[in-house]
Design a protein that fits this description.
With 78 residues, this protein is mainly α. The chain contains four helices and no strands.
């Protein structure tokens, strides 16, 4: 899937989110989006990297210690 397709999916989902709010003002959108995206991203990248944290960190553009901290936060370490 291309970057454009991912952006389109996110855009469409946010449009639906705002429609579902029916005029109610949202709060904490940025944190909500990060929580919704970060865990599945980490799950898929770790799977594709064969659980190799160094490789996954490189792919994500993160320091390995930062990746490890995020994996712990999301309870993704075995």
């Amino acid at each position: 899937m291309s970057k454009k397709k991912i952006e389109e999916c996110i855009r469409e989902n946010f449009k639906t989110y705002f429609e579902d709010l029916a005029g109610t003002e949202p709060h904490g959108l940025y944190d909500m989006l990060l929580r919704a995206v970060e865990k599945p991203l980490l799950e898929v990248v770790m799977q594709e990297a064969d659980q190799n944290q160094s490789r996954a960190a490189e792919w994500l553009g993160l320091n390995r210690n930062t990746l490890r901290k995020k994996l712990l936060e999301h309870k993704l370490l075995k």
